[in-house]
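Weekly sync, protein design subgroup
Attendees: M.S., D.O., the rotation student, P.L. (late)

Item 1: inverse folding check
M.S. brought a backbone from last month's batch and wanted to see whether the design step gives back something sensible before we order anything. D.O. pointed out we never logged the input encoding, so this time it goes straight into the notes. Structure tokens as presented (655 positions):
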């Protein structure tokens, strides 16, 4: 046992690990789900039986070894089980982003040549019915939630429960088939296929083996000491590699329990109830949680606001050293303990992070101030550098060596090198097998000796920690020759709770400019306190007091940038607040909320040029897409605002 994990000998697939977990920890909780306000729990023995019957039911329906099966829906135990069930009979699960529109789903289903689908509910069935005529390979669809499905009589639709019943009958007639099928697969076989977010084009299908996933999971478990008493909340998209490692691979290898929230709207409430010990969230989640907390502080009584600010100053002075086990004077420790009683512990309870012993963030860089805020509360939040092609972990910050500006040292078994042009490359046990039906992209990304091009620019600091600057393709130069790293500047802007999204421009230009999306909840709360009436996002975004509010944030970023001689030229000279929120449904963001820069640049080219002209406003209109597929046209008079910039020598004086 390593870190409470089962030995890997012979346990080289998830179905094999499942059988072992049912044997050695059959009575321990494996899955939880909140339904109608009540938490339901399944032990490892329960889960093993659920998966066995589903796998044999899928076999009865016609799933053969090598078939691809798409899985789509919110985080639900039954959907996680379906992935292992598919693997148990030699199939390949392909999770799909549940908020994808029908046309996006069509591309994945068609490209993956999916013959079967397991989906959550009526909503996902309706999307498939919309595109079914264009998917001749798709034979059968299995749905879990029967609500609203009474009058759906298509012969290719099957309820999850009915498929399991087929499996029970098959098991009675073929009692030895399941174990024989499980044992037929090995670690070298394909475990899953995950599609990239498609930042620059069509998503690519990343093929990962069982060994990729299991060895990566095991190495991280050994590093962090995870065991079967830990608990994880599964709320991120099942199609994302992180969820596959945290909610499936590490759970199967270590034996810890994975809990699913009732809905996306109740995640924070369910997080508080479960109190997980292990947690991952991308920066936007930590930003949103902090924004919600700051809104509540602004609405609190004056004495509570004073206490919050006073003890947060204490936390920033000594909280990081206490968390890292460094020497701290007794008086400061006592003051921090008082702050924990009055502020930190209640705040962590509100966040649902009271029991956290390990938390990760990654995907994009997190603002240093946000990162320090959480760590100063005593939350062991660490940054990782990850990718789908690595089965997640490339670098991980080590306990006691956490620097907000780095992503840590290489993960166990991983080697990282920096090319002459600054690009980060890696190799290790998690390196993907190939891109499905795309040999050219595979050759361009992975070398013959198994090193992977990340497309990111970075360097190692004096402590051997990796610092990521930006995407290599996004790093540019201003006309004065100074480096322009848009993602770095955008992350500094998004630290402010009033700014939800930012897109900066500057490559090949004399100066840097920015699009800003305000955070409707945060700015709306601010507007209500100011008795500022508004009818919606577009109305609020165009109001002069809101521009003044955002200008203060931008000019603070400029003062920070002026202190860095390498980035002082990246100060923002002009900005505008977009008349609409950037949205994945409109193609402006990926499903993981990464900006599609080429689409934004093409779609809002006139606004970009206006930023580099002498215009002070511009009349615009845009088509927006709602969740139900309806569209509407938004018209607005977008204001363009000049900002104060500083020379490096005058930055301090501008404070």
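Designed sequence read out in the meeting:
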């Amino acid at each position: 046992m390593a870190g409470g994990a089962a030995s890997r000998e012979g346990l080289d697939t998830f179905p094999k690990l499942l059988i072992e977990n049912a044997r050695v920890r059959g009575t321990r909780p494996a899955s939880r789900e909140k339904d109608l306000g009540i938490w339901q729990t399944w032990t490892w023995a329960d889960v093993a039986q659920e998966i066995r019957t589903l796998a044999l039911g899928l076999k009865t329906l016609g799933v053969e070894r090598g078939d691809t099966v798409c899985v789509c829906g919110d985080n639900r135990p039954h959907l996680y089980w379906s992935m292992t069930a598919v693997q148990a009979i030699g199939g390949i699960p392909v999770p799909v982003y549940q908020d994808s529109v029908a046309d996006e789903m069509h591309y994945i289903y068609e490209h993956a040549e999916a013959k079967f689908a397991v989906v959550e509910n009526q909503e996902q069935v309706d999307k498939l019915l919309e595109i079914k005529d264009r998917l001749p390979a798709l034979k059968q669809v299995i749905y879990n939630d029967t609500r609203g499905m009474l009058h759906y009589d298509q012969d290719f639709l099957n309820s999850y429960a009915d498929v399991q019943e087929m499996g029970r009958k098959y098991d009675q007639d073929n009692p030895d088939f399941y174990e024989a099928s499980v044992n037929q697969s090995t670690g070298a076989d394909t475990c899953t296929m995950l599609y990239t977010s498609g930042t620059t084009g069509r998503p690519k299908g990343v093929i990962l083996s069982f060994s990729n996933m299991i060895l990566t999971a095991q190495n991280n478990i050994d590093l962090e000491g995870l065991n079967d008493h830990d608990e994880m909340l599964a709320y991120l998209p099942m199609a994302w590699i992180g969820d596959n490692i945290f909610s499936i691979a590490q759970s199967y290898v270590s034996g810890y329990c994975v809990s699913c929230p009732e809905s996306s709207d109740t995640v924070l409430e369910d997080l508080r109830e479960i109190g997980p010990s292990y947690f991952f969230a991308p920066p936007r989640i930590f930003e949103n949680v902090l924004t919600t907390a700051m809104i509540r502080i602004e609405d609190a009584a004056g004495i509570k606001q004073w206490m919050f600010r006073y003890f947060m100053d204490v936390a920033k002075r000594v909280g990081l050293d206490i968390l890292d086990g460094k020497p701290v004077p007794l008086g400061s420790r006592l003051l921090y303990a008082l702050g924990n009683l009055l502020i930190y512990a209640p705040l962590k309870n509100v966040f649902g992070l009271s029991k956290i012993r390990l938390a990760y963030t990654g995907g994009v860089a997190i603002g240093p101030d946000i990162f320090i805020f959480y760590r100063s509360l005593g939350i062991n939040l660490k940054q990782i550098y990850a990718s789908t092609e690595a089965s997640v972990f490339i670098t991980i910050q080590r306990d006691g060596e956490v620097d907000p500006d780095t992503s840590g040292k290489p993960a166990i078994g991983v080697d990282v090198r920096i090319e002459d042009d600054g690009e980060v490359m890696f190799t290790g046990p998690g390196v993907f097998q190939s891109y499905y039906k795309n040999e050219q992209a595979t050759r361009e990304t992975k070398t013959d000796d198994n090193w992977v091009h990340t497309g990111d620019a970075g360097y190692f600091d004096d402590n051997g920690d990796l610092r990521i600057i930006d995407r290599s393709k996004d790093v540019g130069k201003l006309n004065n020759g100074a480096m322009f790293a848009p993602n770095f500047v955008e992350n500094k802007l998004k630290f402010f709770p009033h700014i939800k999204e930012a897109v900066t421009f500057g490559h090949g230009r004399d100066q840097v400019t920015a699009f800003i999306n305000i955070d409707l909840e945060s700015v709306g709360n601010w507007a209500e306190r100011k008795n500022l009436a508004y009818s919606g996002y577009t109305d609020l975004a165009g109001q002069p007091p809101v521009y003044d509010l955002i200008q203060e944030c931008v000019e603070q970023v400029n003062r920070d940038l002026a202190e860095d001689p390498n980035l002082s030229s990246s100060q923002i000279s002009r900005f505008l607040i977009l008349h609409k929120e950037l949205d994945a449904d409109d193609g402006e963001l990926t499903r993981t909320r990464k900006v599609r820069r080429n689409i934004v640049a093409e779609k809002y080219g006139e606004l970009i040029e206006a930023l580099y002209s002498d215009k002070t406003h511009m009349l615009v209109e845009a088509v927006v897409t709602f969740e139900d597929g309806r569209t509407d046209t938004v018209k607005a008079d977008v204001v363009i605002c000049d900002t104060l910039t500083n020379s490096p020598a005058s930055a301090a004086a501008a404070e």
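Discussion: Residues 476-650 form a domain with the GMP Synthetase; Chain A, domain 3 fold (CATH 3.30.300.30). The two ends are 55 Å apart (CA to CA).
Action: P.L. to compare against the previous round before Friday.
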